[in-house]
Amino acid sequence: AAKKLEGNPDNPVNRGGLCARGQAAIQVTYHPDRITHPLKRKGNRGDGNYEAITWEAAIAEVVATLNGIAGSANSLAFLGRPGSSHRDALIAQFLSRFGAPPAIQYELFGDPVLPQANGLSFGIRQLPTFDLANTRYLLNFGADLLGTWNSPVSQARAYGEMRQGRAGIRGHFVQVESRLSQTAASADEFVPIRPGTEGILALRLAQAVLQHAGAQGASQTALVKSVGGLNDYTPALVEKETGIPAARVERLARELAERSPALAVIGGAPLAYTNGLFNAIAVNTLNVVLGSVGRAGGLAFTPQMNVAAVDARPI
After folding, report:
1. What pLDDT score was predicted for residue 66?
2. Kind and range of the H or E element at 41?
3. Is 50 exceeded by the pLDDT of residue 219?
4. Which helix H or strand E contains 17, and what residues bound it?
5. Is the pTM for the entire model greater than 0.90?
6. Lowest-confidence range among 5-9, 36-40, 177-181?
7. Which of 129, 247, 113, 231 shows the shortest CA–CA distance to 191?
8. Distance (Å, rounded) from C-alpha 196 to C-alpha 283?
9. For residue 303, with 0-12 CB atoms within 10 Å meaning exposed, 13-18 middle and 19 or more buried, which class applies?
C-alpha cells in the first residue's frame, strides 16, 4: 500500500519536489470520507440522502439517460477543470456528438485574468514562464510565489538559484502587496500598497524607467500606448492613489532601470479586483519597457502542443 507521495526527480518542473498540497494528496486514497462507490440520490433533492449502487448500475443509468437526450440541443452540459490534454479533446468530441455546447471549465485555484491579459498584450493566452533563476531584480505584485501561487515548488527552487546560485550575483527581491504574506516576508523589501492600485504603480514605474534609461518615444510600443498615456501617472497622483511615497517609487524605478535583467510578476489578489485586467496589462507594459519579454532573466511563453490537431491525425 502507498505510504507517502514523492516527486519525480526527472521532472523538469519540480525536480522531485512536492508542495504541501501534493504531499497531502495521499489522503485522496486513505481519507475516511473518501467516496468509494457511486452514490444515487434517495429522496428529494437537497435532503442529502444517498445510497450506494454498483458501478454497473450507475453506468447503465448514465447511458440510458444519454441515449434519451441524444440529438436534443443544449440538453447536455459538462463541467470540468481547464486544461489542454487528450482527455479534453475526447470530451469535446463527445459533446459535439450530442450537439452540446463546449465544456464549462472551472478551477478553484485558477488565474484566468492573467492568460486573458497576455492574450491581449502578446497574442498568447496562457500563463507566462518566469526565469527567476537568471533575473537580477524581481518586482512582484502580490503573487505568493513561495507559498501557494502557480508552481511554488519550481518557483522556490528558481528563487534559491536567483539568490545563491550565481557567483558574485545575488538577485534583489521587492514585494509589493497589501498584506505581509509568506513571500513578502522573504523579500529584501516589502512595499505596502493600497489594494487594487497595483496597475497605477506599474505604469508610473514604466514611465520612470523610460526616463531613467533615456529611452526615446519609439520605445513606447503599441502595448504601452494601449493602456493609456504614461504621462498621466504623475508621482503626485501615484502617491495619492497607492499610498507609496513618490520618492520611494522613483527609487524603485531607478533600481529597475539599472539592474538588468529585471522582471515584474503579478498574481493572486491584484487580479481578483474589478480592475484586475488593467493591473495585469499594466505589469505587462512594465515588462515590455524593461525589455524582459522573451529574454533570459525575464518571462517567456512555453510552446503548447496542439492536442486537437494531434488527435485528428489518422491512425
Report:
1. 86
2. strand 39-41
3. no
4. none
5. no
6. 5-9
7. 247
8. 13
9. exposed
Cell of 5: 507521495
Q: How far apart are CA 227 and CA 220, in angstroms?
A: 11
List the one residue out of 92, 98, 176 whose CA is nearest residue 140.
Answer: 176
∠307-132-5 over CA atoms, to 5°? Answer: 60
Place of cell 525589455: 291
Higher pLDDT, 120 or 220: 120
pLDDT digits (tens, 9 = 90+) for 90-103: 888 888 888 888 88
DSSP string, 207-274: HHHHHHHT--GGGS-HHHHHH--GGG--HHHHHHHH---HHHHHHHHHHHHHSSSEEEEE-SGGGSST
Our measurement of the distance from residue 9's CA atom to the centroid of its chain's CA atoms, rounded to an integer in Å, reads: 24
List the Cα angle 181/182/187 in 5-degree steps: 90
- Residue 108's Cβ-side half-sphere holds a number of Cα atoms within 13 Å equal to 1
Helix (H) or strand (E) holding 200, with range, is helix 198-213
Residue that has been written with the C-alpha cell 524582459 in this structure: 292
What are the Cα distances from residue 211, in Å, to 13, 161, 240, 253? 37, 31, 21, 9
The sign of the torsion formed by the CA atoms of 241, 242, 244, 249 equals negative
Alpha-carbon gap, residue 111 to 267, rounded angstroms = 8
Tell me the pLDDT tens digit for each residue of 181-201.
Answer: 989 999 999 999 999 999 999
- Quick one: which of 155, 108, 103, 150 has its CA closest to 132? 155
Neighbours of 143 (CB within 10 A): 27
Residue 143 near residue 267 (C-beta atoms within 8 A)? yes
Confidence of residue 82 (pLDDT cuts 50, 70, 90): confident
Helix axes 276-290, 113-122, angle to 10 degrees: 50
Measured distance CA(213)–CA(256) in Å, rounded:
10
- Given a contact cutoff of 8 angstroms between Cβ atoms, the answer to whether 146 and 299 are in contact is no
